[in-house]
Amino acid sequence: MGELMKGKRGLIMGVANDHSIAWGIAQALHAEGAELAFTYQGEAFGRRLEPLAKSVGSDFIMPCDVEDIETVDAAFGELADRWGSIDFVVHAIGFSDRNELRGLYADTTRKNFTHTMVISCFSFTEVAKRAAALMPDGGAMITLTYGGSTRVMPNYNVMGVAKAGLEASVRYLAADYGPRNIRINAISAGPVRTLAGAGISGAREMYNYQQRNSPMRRNVTIDDVGGSAVYLLSHLSKGVTGEIHFVDSGYHITSMPVLDELKA
Ligand code: NAD
Questions:
Q1: What is the complex's ipTM, to 2 decimals?
Q2: Closest C-alpha residue for ligand 1 atom 15
C-alpha cells in the first residue's frame, strides 16, 4: 500500500463487476490511499457494486445512466453536497448494440450510431464539464479507449468510430481545461475479458491473436491498467495531458504477426 493518492477523492464510473476495467482501476487507486465514490447503471449493477465498493472502504454509490442527463446531474449534485470538490474522475463506459458489433461497419444503422456515440463518446464530455466544476484546485480525468479507433479491427465497427471521437474529445477537453490545471487523458487498453468485451463478435479470437502477437506475448490485466491509471491520476503525471496512453503489451507498435520462421 502506497500513499500516491492519499487525501484525494474521486469518482469511478463503469464498474459492472469484478472483471471490469474500472474495478482494476478502483483497487489500484484505493491501494494508494484514494477515497472513492462510484456510479452504477441500473439496480442489478447497483446490487453487485455495493459489496465491491465496501471492500475498498466506500459506501458512496449512486445510480447514473449517461443516456439520461438528469441522472448525471443528480450524481454530480450528490458529489457536490457530500464532498464539495473532487480530484479525479474515471470514465469507463461504453455501449453499442451487439448485433452491429459483427459483419460490415457499413451496415451500422443511424439509430445505433447515435446511441453508441452518445453513450461511448459524448458522455465523457458531459461528465468532464460537470467534474471540472468540482475541481477548483485542478484535477485529472481519464477515459478508456481501444486501438480500434485508429486501425481497423474486425467487428469493432461503430465502436471504433466512437473511440476515435472519444480520443479527439480527450485532446479538445485537455485544451479547454489545461489553463485550470485539469488534465485529461485516455488509456488505450489491450483486450480484456469483460462484459462489454464479450459483446464484440470474435472477441476470443482477438484476445488470443493479440496475446500471440504482442511484444510481451501476453494480454493485459485490469491490474496493469490500474497501475497506469494511478500514474495518470496522480502528481506523477503532472505535466501530461491530452495523451492516449497504451496499456496493451505493446501490440500497437507491431506491423505484422509473429512468424516463428522469421525468428533467428
Ligand atoms: P464492463 O462491461 O465491465 O464495463 C462497461 C461499463 O459501461 C458497465 O459498467 C456499464 O454499466 C457501463 N455503461 C454502459 N452503458 C451505460 C450507460 N448508458 N450509462 C452508464 N453506464 C453505462 O466492460 P469494460 O471492458 O471494463 O469497459 C470499460 C471501458 O473500457 C469501455 O469504455 C470499453 O470500451 C473500454 N475498453 C475495453 C476493452 C476490453 O477489451 N474489455 C479494451 C479497451 C477499452
A1: 0.99
A2: 95
